Amino acid sequence: MRIVILGCGRLGAYLARQFARDGHEVVVIDRERDALEALGPDFPGETVVGMGIDAEVLRRAGIERADVFIAVTGYDNTNIMAAEVAREIFGVPQVITRLNDPLRAEIFQELGLRTVSPTTLAAEAIRKCLED
Amino acid sequence: MYLIIVGGGKVGYYLSKSLLAEGHEVLLIEKNPRRAAFLIDELGADHVWVGDGCDSSTFAQVGMNRADAVIAVTGDDEDNLVVCLLAKRKFGVPRTIARINNPRNAEIFARLGIDVTVSTTEIIQAQIERALPLRSLVHLLALRRGGIQLVECKVAPDAPAEGRPLRELGIPADALVVMVVRGDQTFIPSGETILRAEDEILAVTTPQSEPVLRRLLLGT
């Protein structure tokens, strides 16, 4: 699968390396060149420097051929906008968005985006620890 | 009309002030408490809400569902988009207007259902183009969906359009000359109207037909 990841922070870089190891074709976008260097010299995928809400940058990352788009920058609204562009403009079949704000995650999930909220997931995991 | 404005920077502040003066019911949402304190002093506590305009709980509290329009004018395109998407899709606000900084976002916002975008960059560019004797088609306004643009230009002296009736020009079906300003005269043209050099034209066009329009009116 061709997977485009927006945001090369801890989560983005981790996912990129895992998907690449599993044999997927991976492209990582970040506005900071330094952030992309965190992938290491042996990273087999492609990298693109630029703003992920810019359709031109997404095109350079080959989004038109992507099977999956994952938005994991630290900014919820950037992720929402990039995801909407990927879904509505480029018709990427699978679009997944990380949103830190659980409420926004819930609403945009209702509105048809696939959202993941680390806040909710961590809270659930912590509560589960206490139940055990 | 009940108008909700998100983003209390310079644009939001002056916009609220003038809309209030026109007698509208205006609520300005600003998340920075210090900035909000200034806005409350200037506009009155009834017209300012301190909170995050991208937060749907704010929206519920300010009665977003009865707003006639939501105008998002923060400095970040993505924030303005999220405000308008929430207003439109979650609260059914009939009219959403977003300020954009990157002109290329106009088309994206339109395709995502935002009714009107106002590009500060393009407005400044348009003013400069008008002030300079350049041959150009100036973008005035992007209308919703389909990327239809309202454009302005001055007919160039040697352009194909000069001295011929409009209907003979072969203007594409998805473009239309809607107004002509000639000296101190302004009129809506018909197919028989013969354009002259230096006529100022307002036209609506899709992006696809823009190059044709440009060639006919400007000869470039």
Descriptive notes:
The complex is a heterodimer of chains A (132) and B (220). Chain A is α/β, with parallel strands linked by helices and 132 residues long. Chain A has a single domain, classed as Rossmann fold (3-Layer(aba) Sandwich). In chain A, 45% of the residues lie in helices and 20% in strands. Chain A has helices at residues 10-21, 33-37, 55-60, 76-89, 102-110, 118-131, and strands at residues 2-6, 25-30, 46-49, 68-71, 94-98, 114-116. The longest helix of chain A has 14 residues, at 76-89. The mean pLDDT of chain A is 94. Helices cover 32% and strands 25% of the residues of chain B. Chain B is elongated. Chain B folds into two domains: 2-120, Rossmann fold, CATH 3.40.50; 133-218, 2-Layer Sandwich (Alpha-Beta Plaits), CATH 3.30.70. By secondary structure, chain B is α/β, with parallel strands linked by helices. A six-stranded parallel β-sheet of chain B has the order 3-2-1-4-5-6, with helices on both faces. Chain B contains seven helices and eleven strands. Classes of the chains: A alpha/beta (132), B alpha/beta (220).
SSE layout and pairing:
The complex is a heterodimer of chains A (132) and B (220).
Chain A: E1 2-6, H1 10-21, E2 25-30, H2 33-37, E3 46-49, H3 55-60, E4 68-71, H4 76-89, E5 94-98, H5 102-110, E6 114-116, H6 118-131
Parallel strand pairs in A: 1-2, 1-4, 2-3, 4-5, 5-6
Chain B: E1 2-6, H1 10-21, E2 25-30, H2 33-43, E3 48-50, H3 56-61, E4 69-72, H4 77-90, E5 95-100, H5 105-111, E6 116-119, H6 120-131, E7 138-142, E8 149-154, E9 175-182, E10 185-187, E11 200-205, H7 210-218
Parallel strand pairs in B: 1-2, 1-4, 2-3, 4-5, 5-6
Antiparallel strand pairs in B: 7-8, 8-11, 9-10, 9-11
Give a brief rundown of this model.
The complex is a heterodimer of chains A (132) and B (220). By secondary structure, chain A is an alpha/beta fold.
